[in-house]
Structure formats: C-alpha cells, structure tokens
Amino acid sequence: VQLVESGGGLVQAGGSLRLSCAASGRIFRINNMAWYRQGPGKQRELVTAITPSGTTNYADSVKDRFTITRDNAKNTVYLQMNSLKPEDTAVYYCNADVRRIGYVNFYNYWGQGTQVTVSS
Asked: Three-state DSSP class for 100?
C-alpha cells in the first residue's frame, strides 16, 4: 500500500492550497484518514482526521481555515487550506488505516510528505 501526497508548494500569507493524498495497492478497505504536519524544529502533530462516513475533527489552530474531505471510491483524501499563515509552514503527511485484501487487520500507513511554505 502506498500513500502519495501532492499539492504542496509556496504561497503567500492569506493564500490557499489544496493537498491530495491517494492510496493505492491491494486495498480492501480504508478506515480513518488524517493529515499530520511537522514544522521546523517541532514535533509531528495531528492537523485533522476524517472517518469513512465523513465525521471530522480539527486541531484548534486550523479550525475554520482548513477542510478535510475524502472520496472513498478513489481512496483519496483532500485538505483544503485557506487563510494560510506563516506558522502553517510544515511538511504535511497523509496517514491512513488500511485493511489489505486477504488480511483481517488494519495497518497504519504514512505518505512521504509534501512541503507547504507560507511566506509573510
């Protein structure tokens, strides 16, 4: 199973970016999907998560600015980031709990990360 992120880049403060993360491989089912980030000199932190039915939760720092959605048919999760701030600068990682075909348990997978840089 692979998670591949895309959509990162450089944006000015107040701008927007949309990240995508597509899961591929011998996938039977995907449970929760999430976005984490790790800023310079900081620990990795949970930004937002979404259940298969669409229930979401957000870190306080991104509420009302970021929106997570998913397309279950495409095994893809998105992160729409609006009103970006310099403190949002980080490597953003996709995370998912995946049940592979032929397996009973769910296993946790990470993407390789995509850089988001917000200039002031």
From this structure: strand
Low-confidence ranges of the chain (pLDDT < 50): none
pLDDT at 81: 98
Backbone dihedral angles phi then psi of residue 86, each to the nearest 5 degrees: -55, -30
Would you say 66 and 57 are in contact if contact means Cβ atoms under 8 Å apart?
Answer: no
How many other β-carbons are positioned within 10 Å of the β-carbon of residue 16?
Answer: 11
Q: Tell me: the pLDDT tens digits for 23-57?
A: 999 999 999 999 999 999 999 999 999 999 999 99
Interacting residues of 37 by C-beta distance below 8 A, sequence separation 6+:
44, 45, 47, 88, 90, 91, 92, 93, 116
Q: What angle do CA 50, 55, 59 make, to 5 degrees?
A: 60
Please return the burial class of 55, using the count of CB atoms within 10 Å of its CB with bins 0-12, 13-18 and 19+: exposed
